[in-house]
From TrEMBL:
One of its GO terms (molecular function) is ATP binding. The keyword Hydrolase applies. PANTHER family: ATP-DEPENDENT DNA HELICASE HOMOLOG RECG, CHLOROPLASTIC (PTHR47964:SF1). Transmembrane segments: none annotated. Residues 280-441 form the Helicase ATP-binding domain. Residues 464-620 form the Helicase C-terminal domain. SUPFAM superfamilies: Nucleic acid-binding proteins, P-loop containing nucleoside triphosphate hydrolases. This is Probable DNA 3'-5' helicase RecG. One of its GO terms (biological process) is DNA repair. Keywords: ATP-binding, DNA damage, DNA repair, DNA-binding, Helicase, Hydrolase, Nucleotide-binding.
Length: 694
């Protein structure tokens, strides 16, 4: 299937546009604009009102003004100063200022005694109004050529507004009329115009209100992006479901043994999630499910039950964690359960080498290992399973998209379960996981005492240390997380090592230990193990302990320079305590200059432990890219749509996409064909491959 001919001009080289040569194309490339298509989706972000005024007095200064003037006396440049031209509008006189004006250009442009229209920014200098380098100097009979409201585009070095506007106009000229891909009901309800019209309108704003996200033309173009993305996700989902998967019917033979051995009963939410997963696995289609749950909601056990289901059905299961520490910890917490069930569990990480690794791989290939826990080493090409039926990815957003795809290819028709440690706001989860089914653990195991959270100024360091000393005497344990001061890991490390030395001096040699990312792995493990065994009282750490680490006796979390962390990250860190019976405390220490916003963010954390609430707040305050880490998140980059503010629109797009595919799975109806054009227009290559030649 190839790109519809109508779209060819939009995908041609930028140099076809007026005023754009090879050099210009390189400049546009810096803005990630490679084709006329990219250009038409680069909308103005501001506008200048150029409507004619009687006088500069009608406008608040400094400001942009357009007035008709009579040209007065020229005062040529003296020395390095600018040339000045006196002008007079209907009510006052002011100066036009020109630096480096060449030859007789000024006298030609502004002959004394003539009328001209000038438009530009007027400022007051020592009480004298001045317009430096007017944007426009026009004859009175050229007045019509002046836009009433001029769009302002994002630029980069070497590009002017005028050059940009010219290129954009050229690109719009290449945009064809296209058949409608949006549901007629949605079009009618929103009162949208067709694509071509919406495009032209969005580039020709008439007032500030036309630049708003809610302006119909922009909203329609945003919808197109969201719809194309949701269509892609829906196609991925449909494609997966169409592919015949394995029927892995859990017998309960193994899991019942584990259940019998648990000192607690499962929460309702855990039971629900386990049932949803079991149903997916037992069905003949491939599972693609997201397990969302707040810190401490008990995802690990749900994951283990799913792994057992794969084993009960005669296959194998694998679980991937983003770090070595977490993989080891999963192994440790799952091993007793695995023993109870009588299944063989192993770990595979980058540390496995030589003969030992070869032995593990062999055992895996002949089915002697039932469950494999590990880091991304599990993705290595030479790792082969006897019969992998379920792949689980823990702490999802730390993995890149390609790794995620590699995982699915490890086994024939493998079911996948993705677990996120951080609750994700609905709008993001729609954009990121819209192709998956979702199970949510919205209930925490009973018997937890809430974590008491307090904000403390860094200046009160000594006080904090004294309290820590007292707590240690009571046999409590604490994490001390050092700030992300740094652009470089080196300086993060220095601060952690510094803090480690100071705390050790204050609290005693054996009481304090240090763990950070650059430590040799064995030392890291040793430090974690000693802390878990209660041999050390305080563990100074960088954010390596952020996700998943589980030491129930630790009941104090101190976070330095808390304002430098994201809210979700702080929530994760705090989630390391409050796991045992003891009342837990989290101290958020902040630096001297805490801005109002920073304080508000920390207060949100102080006031709630609801991860979903925190995630929504974080999103609203920081934006999607920051919350998930754009590069790794697999989050689409929209040029127009705004994930934070257009969540409802995205939900509509998802519904629209699903309905269209239900009615027309091959996209072969007229509207389906229009939707194909949209996918081409939006460069949804993956989706296009999936529809195939049909
Ligand atoms: P998550 O991975 O969702 O942050 P974990 O799976 O690490 O949470 O569970 C946190 C703690 O809660 C673990 O110590 C686990 O043994 C315990 N736990 C899990 N489910 C229950 C339950 N239903 N009742 C009591 N404790 C539970
Ligand atoms: Mg299945």
């Amino acid at each position: 299937m190839s790109r519809p001919q109508a779209l060819w001009p939009l995908f041609s080289d930028l140099t076809v546009l007026p005023g754009v040569g090879p050099k210009g194309a390189r400049i546009f490339a810096q803005m990630k604009i490679a084709t006329p298509r990219d250009l038409i989706f680069t909308l103005p972000h501001a506008g200048i009102d150029r409507r004619r005024q009687e006088s500069i007095r009608d406008v608040e200064l400094p400001g942009t003004v357009t007035v008709e003037v009579t040209v007065g006396r020229h005062r040529p440049a003296a020395g390095r100063g600018p040339a000045r031209v006196e002008v007079e509008d209907a009510r006052t006189s002011f100066l036009l200022i020109f630096f480096h004006a060449r030859g007789d250009w000024l006298t030609r442009m502004l002959p004394e005694g003539q009328r001209r229209i000038v438009s530009g920014r007027v400022e007051l200098f020592d009480g004298i109004a001045q317009m430096a380098h007017p944007d426009y100097i026009l004859h009175t009979n050229e007045a019509d050529t002046l836009p009433r409201y001029e769009p302002v585009y994002p630029l980069t070095n070497g590009l002017t507004q005028r050059g940009m506007a010219k290129a954009v106009a050229g690109a719009i000229g290449l945009a064809p009329e296209l058949p409608e891909w949006i549901d007629p009901g949605v079009i009618a309800a929103e009162g949208w115009s067709d694509w071509r019209r919406a495009l032209a309108t969005a580039h020709a704003p008439d007032a500030d209100s036309d630049l708003a996200t809610v302006a119909p033309a922009r909203r329609r173009l945003a919808y197109d992006e969201l719809f194309a993305h949701q269509l892609t996700l829906a196609l991925v989902r449909a494609d997966r479901r169409r592919k015949v998967g394995r029927v892995s019917r859990p017998s309960g033979r193994l899991s019942s043994r584990v259940r019998a051995g648990l000192p607690y009963s499962l929460t309702g939410a855990q039971e629900r999630a386990i049932a949803e997963i079991a149903e997916d696995m037992a069905s003949p289609h491939r599972m693609g499910r997201l397990l969302q749950g707040d810190v401490g909601s008990g995802k690990t056990l749900v994951a283990f039950m799913a792994l057992l289901a794969a084993v009960e059905a005669g296959g194998q299961g694998a679980m991937m964690a983003p770090t070595e520490i977490l993989a080891r910890q999963h192994l440790e917490s799952l091993t007793p359960l695995a023993e109870q069930a009588g299944v063989v569990i192993e770990i595979l990480t980058g540390r496995d080498k030589g003969a030992e690794r070869a032995a593990k791989l062999a055992a895996l290939q002949n089915g002697d290992i039932h469950i494999l826990v590990g880091t991304h080493a599990v993705f290595s090409d030479d790792v082969h399973f006897a019969d992998l039926r379920l792949a689980i990815v823990d702490e999802q957003h730390r993995f890149g998209v390609s790794q995620r795809l590699a995982l699915g290819q490890k086994g024939e028709r493998v079911d996948t379960l993705v677990m996120t440690a951080t609750p994700i706001p609905r709008s993001l989860s729609l954009a990121q996981y819209g192709h998956m089914d979702v199970s949510i653990l919205d209930e925490k195991p009973p018997g937890r005492t809430p974590v008491k959270t307090a904000l403390v100024a860094a200046a009160r360091y000594d006080e904090v240390v004294e309290r820590l000393r007292a707590a240690l005497k009571e046999g409590r344990q604490a994490y001390w997380v050092c700030p992300l001061v740094a652009e470089s890991e080196v300086s993060d490390l220095t601060s952690a090592e510094d803090r480690f030395r100071r705390l050790r001096a204050a609290l005693g040699e054996g009481q304090v230990d240090l763990v950070h990312g650059q430590m040799p792995p064995t030392e890291k493990d040793a430090a974690m193990a000693k802390f878990a065994a209660g041999e050390t009282g305080v563990l100074v750490a960088t954010t390596v302990i952020e996700v998943g680490v589980n030491v129930p006796n630790a009941s104090i979390m101190v976070i330095e320079r808390a304002e430098t962390f994201g809210l979700a990250q702080l929530h994760q860190l705090r989630g390391r305590v409050g796991r045992g019976a003891a009342a837990s405390t989290c101290l958020l220490m902040f630096g001297a200059e805490l801005s109002e916003t920073a304080r508000k963010r920390l207060e949100i954390l102080r006031d709630t432990e609801d991860g979903f609430h925190i995630a929504e707040a974080d999103l609203a305050m920081r934006g999607a890219g920051d919350v998930l880490g754009q590069a790794q998140s697999g989050l689409p980059r929209f040029r127009i749509a705004d994930l934070e503010r257009q969540a409802a629109l995205q939900a509509t797009a998802r519904r629209d996409a699903q309905r269209l595919l239900e009615a027309d799975p091959d996209l072969s109806s007229p509207r389906g064909m229009a939707a194909r054009t949209l996918l081409w227009l939006m460069e949804q290559d993956k989706a296009i491959q999936m529809i195939g030649a049909g």
